[in-house]
Amino acid sequence: MEKKDQIVITTVKDRLCCCYLENGKLYDVVFSDSKKEHSGSVGDIFTGRVENIIPNIQAAFVRISKDETGYLPLTKEELKNVRCGQEKIVQIKKAAVKTKQAVLTCHPELVGRCSVVTGGRKGVGISKKITDESIRDTLIRLADTCLPDFMHLVFRTNAAELPADTVKEEILRSVKVLQQIYDKANHTKAPALLQEAVPFYLRFIRNIPIERRVSILTDNPGVYKVLSEEYPEVILYQDTSYSLDHLYSLSSTIEKALSKKVWLKSGGTLIIEPTEALTVIDVNTGKAIQGKRNKETTFYKVNLEAAREAARQIRLRNLSGMILIDFIDMEEEEHIKSLIYNFKKELEQDPTQCTFIDITKLGLVELTRRKTHLSLPECLKQE
Question: CB under 8 Å to 163, separation ≥6 — which residues?
């Protein structure tokens, strides 16, 4: 089978996972939630009960189930209107990790392929990537026809690529679901689950820009049924003699992603060391320098390869927070500028918000990456 950019959804290590491959190489992997450590998943919406309010940090702790409470950050205005025992509609924004509780929001949102509809807020926003003023005007007018006063709407980049009727249909569907959630909360005693999040693989696929036009492949009939309603192009893989896991070497690639050493084709290596505070990536020449006379040019080539692989490993391992990269020291300013330019280009391909900060006086590259879900090692520890 020809290998091209695609989504592969299959079972790996006894867990359902969604993998994104570019030219046959694995870049992103998201596992299903084992739910062994906590009862809620990102996107779940609850009617919860406020148990404790901490004014100093502008937050409250909300009971969302018999066994779990979540951390709810509040604005100063929201804090004035919150009291213990109060029932509130909340949604899990960030999953519980280790001893940290799940982070909640009191503005539940439904994320679609081309829109995000949020309850309890007003207004309309448009992705900055949509720069055509005529398209922006059309979307604003469209919002006026289908958005209630108590909901907020953001048009995602994909909205510019889809027919207006398709965009409007998705918005109306989200509005209807949110209204049903609010109505249900009025007749449900807290704590209780009001709405489960959409399957993790559907959430992942909706975040992929339409222009990438990747193919979707799964060997799971249940997943195929869910996806075919929104993505009729999805393919059901039915070759029982050779699994998708083996076809794309998913298990072996994921296993390598748990190792701290990554070999580069040039003979250099990356050493990836996550700590409690940050993640450090060290670039070493390894075998790449053996027999080479022009060390500056060699260092530059190894650094370029390391930049591409570091960006890939950050996505693959789903590293987040502060990240420091110690590239091989170079003397030529032109090489340093070129390295940073190319590294930034690689980071721009990351679907998760990744921000290049600066180069320290010690020559360390600083960046931050938004935490959306558990890192790969954390996911696999849930087994």
Answer: none
**Single-letter residue type at 264:** L
Q: Please, are residues 323 and 281 in contact by the beta-carbon 8 Å criterion? A: yes
Can you tell me the distance from the alpha carbon of 274 to that of 307, in angstroms, rounded to the nearest whole number?
Answer: 18
- What is the identity of the amino acid at 153? L
E strands present in 127-226? 151-155, 192-195, 215-218
Beta bridge pairs of residue 209: none
Whole-angstrom CA distances from 227 to 127, 204, 330, 338, 354 are: 25, 12, 49, 42, 28
Q: Which residue, 166, 249, 161, 257, is CA-closest to 208?
A: 161
DSSP 71-88: EEE--HHHHHT--TT-EE
Cα angle 378-381-383, degrees, rounded to a multiple of 5: 130
> pLDDT (tens digit, 9 = 90+) per residue, 324-349?
999 999 989 999 999 999 999 999 98
